[in-house]
Amino acid sequence: MITxxxxxxxxxxxxxxxxxxxxxxxxxxxxxxxxCDIKSNISCTKAITSKYGNLLKILPNHVLGLLFYVSxxxxxxxxxxxxxxxxxxxxxxxxxxxxxxxxxIQRNFCLLCISSxxxxxxxxxxxxxx
Length: 130
Known about the structure:
Layout: H1 2-27, H2 44-48, H3 61-75, H4 83-105, H5 111-129
C-alpha cells in the first residue's frame, strides 16, 4: 500500500507542476495551447486561470496540491504514515468542491483536474486501507 501511495503522490506532483506551467504560460499572454485544452468546454486553462483556481484564497489550487502530494510522499517514509489518511480528508473535501465547481458552475471538463481528483481518491482509499 505504501508503494502505491508513493506512486500516486509522485503522479500528483507531476499533475500539479504541469498545472503550474499551464497557469504561468497562460498568464504571460502568449498563444499557448496545452495538451489538456481540447475545446472550449474541455479546458484545463479555463479551470486553472479562473477565480476558482485559487479557491481558498491562500495559494493557487495547484500549489496546495503540490504541497499535499509532497507531504504525502515524505510522510510515507516515516512511522507516522497513518497520518496520511487524516491529510487526505481535507484534500477530498476540496476535491468534491472543485469537482462541483468544474462540472456544474463552469460546465468545464478539466483533464488535469480530473486526474488530480482520481489521485486524491486513490490516496484517501489507500491510506485508509493501510
